[in-house]
């Protein structure tokens, strides 16, 4: 006698919030999305559901932890329906969103519902407008990307502080958080090298002074912090001219803050290239 295994299945209630969406207000919050999804599921008589939540992930990138877990559960035959607040919560890349909605979900016999957009794959007539809404969602991300990039360039051109932390050797000005001031308690060796250079000493002379005064070179600290590049005791003070030149030529040690070094040519691009 052959027995059939009964596999537990459920409905996936997927919520997503990116950093940009967080500025919209409480209506876009994860808690609000959960309430909308729960109400919709129960209106349909669905009480066996699980939440999949990605908080702080962009809709243009589908490599999100909970989303990928939901996809794995779908492929394992555990999920029979997916509900999102709207199409943009699923994603803002119209090609990939369309591939999931029109190919992946039907292939695995998964019903898809986007509550606020009135999309329900159980009703083919409601799906006709879906591709156009996905394109509009991608245009929104493209527009946000342009505005953010433009704002950063403007702040950089005005000489305002762009980072979350001050660079080594500097601290934020207590009176103006957009500017930096020197931190006299940090980078004493670097300051000393610049003082010697301002006195007219060459790289070779500076290296000899550092050696005579037993001032350790950067590699001396690497065993403590990185566990590699072990050096002999005497070699710890043997500064190479290349190291001194690199310090004196580093614009960051001269008070500059280097921003916009890397740039994304397209808002969907995950890696950054060096800006021209």
Describe the 3D structure.
The protein has 276 residues and is of the alpha/beta class. The protein is 39% helix and 15% strand. The protein is built from 9 helices and 9 strands. The chain has helices at residues 30-43, 65-75, 87-90, 94-107, 130-157, 188-198, 203-212, 218-225, 241-249; strands at 10-17, 49-55, 79-84, 111-114, 119-120, 170-173, 176-182, 262-263, 273-274. Strands 2-1-3-4-5 form a 5-stranded mixed beta sheet, with helices on both faces. Strands 6-7 form a two-stranded antiparallel sheet. A two-stranded antiparallel sheet has the order 8-9. Helix 4 packs antiparallel against helix 5 (130-157). It is elongated, with a radius of gyration of 28 Å. The mean pLDDT is 76.
Q: How are the secondary structure elements laid out?
A:
Layout: E1 10-17, H1 30-43, E2 49-55, H2 65-75, E3 79-84, H3 87-90, H4 94-107, E4 111-114, E5 119-120, H5 130-157, E6 170-173, E7 176-182, H6 188-198, H7 203-212, H8 218-225, H9 241-249, E8 262-263, E9 273-274
Parallel strand pairs: 1-2, 1-3, 3-4
Antiparallel strand pairs: 4-5, 6-7, 8-9
Biggest sheet overview: 5 strands, mixed
Number of helices: 9
What gross morphology would you assign? elongated
Percent helix: 25-40%
Order of helices and strands: EHEHEHHEEHEEHHHHEE
Unreliable residue runs = none
How do the strands of the widest beta sheet line up side by side?
A: 2-1-3-4-5
**Given the helix and strand composition, which structural class is it?**
alpha/beta
User: If you compute it from the alpha carbons, what radius of gyration comes out, rounded to the nearest whole angstrom?
Assistant: 28 Å
Total number of beta strands: 9
Distance linking N and C termini: 72 Å
The chain-level mean pLDDT equals: 76
What fraction strand? 15-25%
């Amino acid at each position: 006698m052959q027995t059939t295994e009964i596999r537990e299945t459920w409905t996936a209630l997927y919520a997503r919030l990116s950093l940009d969406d967080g500025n919209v207000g409480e209506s876009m919050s994860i808690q609000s999305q959960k309430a909308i999804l729960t109400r919709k599921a129960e209106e349909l008589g669905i009480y066996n559901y699980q939440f999949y939540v990605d908080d702080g992930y962009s809709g243009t990138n589908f490599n999100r932890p909970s989303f990928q877990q939901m996809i794995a559960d779908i492929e394992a035959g555990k999920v029979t329906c997916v509900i999102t607040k709207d199409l943009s919560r699923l994603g803002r890349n119209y090609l990939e969103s369309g591939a999931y909605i029109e190919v992946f979900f039907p292939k695995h016999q998964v019903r898809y519902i986007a509550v606020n957009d009135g999309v329900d794959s159980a009703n083919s007539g409601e799906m006709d407008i879906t591709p156009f809404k996905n394109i509009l969602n991608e245009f929104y991300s493209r527009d946000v990307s342009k505005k953010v990039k433009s704002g950063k360039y403007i702040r950089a051109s005005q000489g305002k502080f762009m980072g979350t932390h001050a660079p080594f050797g500097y601290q934020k000005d207590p009176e103006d958080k957009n500017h930096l001031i020197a931190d006299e308690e940090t980078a004493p060796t670097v300051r000393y090298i610049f003082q010697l250079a301002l006195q007219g000493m060459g790289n070779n002379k500076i290296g000899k002074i550092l050696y005579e005064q037993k001032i350790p070179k950067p590699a001396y600290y690497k065993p403590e912090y990185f566990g590699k590049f072990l050096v002999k005791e005497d070699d710890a003070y043997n500064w190479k001219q290349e190291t001194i030149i690199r310090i004196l030529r580093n614009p960051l040690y001269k008070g500059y803050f280097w921003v916009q070094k890397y740039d994304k040519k397209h808002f969907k691009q995950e890696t950054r290239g060096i800006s021209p």
